[in-house]
Amino acid sequence: MTSAVARAHTNIALVKYWGKRDSELMLPQTDSLSLTLNEFYADTKVEFSAQLTADELIIDGQSVSGKGFKKVQKVLSIVRQMSQTDQFARVESVNHVPMAAGLASSASAFAALAMAASTAAGMKLSRRDLSRLARRGSGSATRSIYGGLVEWHRGVDDLTSYAEPIMETVDFPLEMMAILLNTEQKKVSSTLGMQHVVETSPYYPAWREVVQADMQKIKLAIEKRDINEIGHIAQTNALRMHALNLAADPGFTYFNAATLQAMHAIDNLRASGTNCYYTMDAGPNVKVIYDRADRSKIQAALTPLFGADNLVVSQPGPGTVLLDQK
C-alpha cells in the first residue's frame, strides 16, 4: 500500500484557449497563458492498495460518481499503465475553491491528482510530464503544475502539448481579486460550452488569430512588468471569448446580472483614474487585475456593491507540491 498527498493551486487564464481539437488527449485549439493564485487550492491524497476492488473518489468527505469520477479514473488508468501496476486507488480530495463555478477548481484538483497519483505509484515525473498528465484530466490543470505566470503550448500531439512557466516568481506587484457572485455549479459545463462554440460560432476561426496575437502582446507586457497592459489584454481577450458564446447556435452566456454590475463597476473605476481590469472564465464570477498599490481603493469601491466577504484578494501562487508520501 503506497500513498501520497499533493497540493495544487488554481489558475486563471489571462489569455484563454476556449476549445479543444482532441477531447481524448485534451489538446487545445490555441496556446494560453495564466496566473496561478495562492488563495484557491486543492489537497489530494491517492492511495493504491491491493485490497481495493475498484477505484474510489471522495471529494470534501462525499463519495463521488458520474462524470467527475470518470475523469479521475482516466488519469488513474494512465498512471497504472505508466507504472505497470494493476492496483486500484482511493482518491480523497479537499477543495479550497468552489467547484464548477468558473473559479478553475478542476485545474487545481487534477494538477494535485497528477502529482499524488504518479508519486503513489512509485514514479518521479518531471514537471513537464506532470503537466502532460494533468492535462488528460482537465486542460487548464496543465498550467497549475507551475506557479506564477504560465504558458500552455497547444502542441501538435500528446508529447508537445504542455505548460511551462514564463515567470514562476512574479517580481512585480500584480494582484488579482475574485468577486464571488455565485458559487453554485454552472448550468453549461466548460467542456460542453467550448465544444458547442467550436462547432457553431461563426467567429471561431477569428478567435484563433486573436489568441495568437494576444499571446505575443501579453508576453511582451509581462517582460515590461506593465500591469495595465496585461490587464487590458486580459479584459479584451475575455470579452472576445464570451462573445463566441453569444454568437453560438443557440447562443448562451455564463454572465448573470451581478456579473454585468461588476464589469460596469470596474470600467467606471478605471474611467475615474484607478487602473483595474476584469476577466471571467466559464462562470459568473469576475476577477479583477490590478497593481497591489491600488487594492484598498478597489476594495472601498466594490465592498458596498458586493460585500467584503465576497471579495477575495489573491497573490500569484506557487506550483504543485508534494505534502506527504508513505
TrEMBL record:
Top-level taxon of the source organism: Bacteria
Protein family according to the UniProt entry: Belongs to the diphosphomevalonate decarboxylase family.
EC id: 4.1.1.33
GO biological process: isopentenyl diphosphate biosynthetic process, mevalonate pathway
Top EC group: lyase
Domain Mvd1 C-terminal: 179-308
UniProt source species: Limosilactobacillus allomucosae
PANTHER family listed in its UniProt record: DIPHOSPHOMEVALONATE DECARBOXYLASE (PTHR10977)
Domain Diphosphomevalonate decarboxylase-like N-terminal span(s) in chain numbering: 8-163
Pfam families assigned: MDD_C, MVD-like_N
Protein name: diphosphomevalonate decarboxylase
One annotated Gene Ontology cellular component of this protein: cytosol
UniProt xrefs under InterPro entries: GHMP_kinase_C_sf (IPR036554), Mev_decarb (IPR005935), Mev_diP_decarb (IPR029765), MVD-like_N (IPR053859), Mvd1_C (IPR041431), Ribosomal_Su5_D2-typ_SF (IPR020568), Ribsml_uS5_D2-typ_fold_subgr (IPR014721)
GO molecular function: ATP binding; diphosphomevalonate decarboxylase activity
Keyword terms, alphabetized: ATP-binding, Lipid biosynthesis, Lipid metabolism, Lyase, Nucleotide-binding
The organism's taxonomic lineage, starting at the top: Bacteria, Bacillati, Bacillota, Bacilli, Lactobacillales
